Amino acid sequence: MSAATAIAHANIALVKYWGKRDATLNLPAAGSLSLTLDALTTTTTVEFGDAQADELSIDGKPASESAVARFSAWLDLVRTRAGIDARARVASTNNFPTASGLASSASAYAAAAVAASRAAGLSLQPFELSVLARRGSGSAARSIFGGFAMMNVGTRPDGSDAYAEPVPFADDWPVRMVIAVVGGGVKKDVSSRDAMDHCAKTSVLYDGWLRSVPGDLAAARVAIGRRDLVALGEVTAHSALTMHASAFAARPAVIFFRPATLECLLRVQALAKQEQVPAYCTMDAGPHVKVLTLADHVPRVSECLAGVQGVTRVIETGPGQGAQLIGTP
Ligand code: PMV
């Protein structure tokens, strides 16, 4: 019997990942770039032992059959690599709503990669952990690292070069993210996985979306290097709306926006224009709005979002650390 516990932080993509080039290996069709967030965490304990089948609990409750099946298939990758056969007991806890568009699968599979590999007796390099996390969820590859992380699209057919890497940045740059939770953080009806697949198959705007990614990635990297929040924010807003435009144009359309989502976007845009507050929105496969800004402007941005009807909570956060082991009992 061996066990390990790890903690990982969720990340929000500034240049989005939306579409795969290989579903089996979970390889992205393009690169992406994200900010790992201090306030959103998953803590996961993996214990290989004498259980008959893998067991998974999320936030203290047994996970659904489909979630267990998906997780079990992913654990097989760890077992095969470690040459073990034991089933695992896994307990995962989030300090924020699960599967609602707040990147819980990113922190979940990053924490699981660190905990499961250690519990299985493996000692993996960060890039190998990133590849392993990617097999569970594309965005999880980035949560292995703290701060800004860039996911490489990779070219090898086996996906061994499709991993994330940290993007160096000045650690006194006071970058912040303010998150407007819309509608109480209820579970979303369609997973990112299904939605991106549907867009790739049916949206006339999907090719245009893919073509927009390399330029946005390059611009984001330059902006981070120059500590230029305005340039980074413009890319962030552009990437999110281009991704959502491809979703609107799918058949049938995939619409993650709720009225409060749009109201947040408009208010933040007005804040930037009328009060010169550097604030830029991004949204994922859910209704929540995440606003990139600087520390001095957090109170004003929070106030603006909290006043929107339908916003049930506002979370203020800064850059978080990479996934790490917190215990091996
Ligand atoms: O990692 P997945 O399969 O949950 O997909 C994440 C997709 C987005 O959150 C919409 C974008 C991203 O890059 O995180």
How would you characterize the overall build of this protein?
There is one protein chain. The chain is of the alpha+beta class and 329 residues long. The chain is 38% helix and 26% strand. It contains 9 helices and 14 strands. The protein has helices spanning 65-82, 104-119, 126-136, 140-143, 192-202, 206-225, 229-248, 259-275, 298-306; strands at 2-15, 20-22, 27-28, 32-49, 55-58, 61-62, 87-94, 148-151, 164-166, 175-182, 280-282, 289-294, 311-317, 324-327. The strands form 3 sheets. Strands 1, 4, 5, 6, 7, 8, 9 and 14 form an 8-stranded mixed β-sheet that branches. Helix 2 crosses helix 3 (126-136) and helix 6 (206-225) packs antiparallel against helix 7 (229-248). The radius of gyration is 19 Å and the shape is globular. 51% of the residues are buried. The mean pLDDT is 95. The site of (3R)-3-hydroxy-3-methyl-5-(phosphonooxy)pentanoic acid has 14 residues, from helix 2 and helix 5. The site of (3R)-3-hydroxy-3-methyl-5-(phosphonooxy)pentanoic acid (PMV) has 14 residues, from helix 2 and helix 5.
Fraction of residues in helices?
25-40%
Q: Which structural class should the secondary elements be placed in?
A: alpha+beta
Name every ligand kind in the structure: (3R)-3-hydroxy-3-methyl-5-(phosphonooxy)pentanoic acid
Strand content: 25-35%
Radius of gyration: 19 Å
Distance between the termini: 10 Å
Number of alpha- plus pi-helical segments: 9
Number of strands: 14
What best-fitting shape do the alpha-carbon axes yield?
A: globular
Average pLDDT score: 95
Order of helices and strands: EEEEEEHEHHHEEEHHHHEEHEE
Provide the low-confidence segments as ranges.
none
For the largest beta-sheet, the strand count, sense and barrel status come to: 8 strands, mixed
Oligomer: single chain
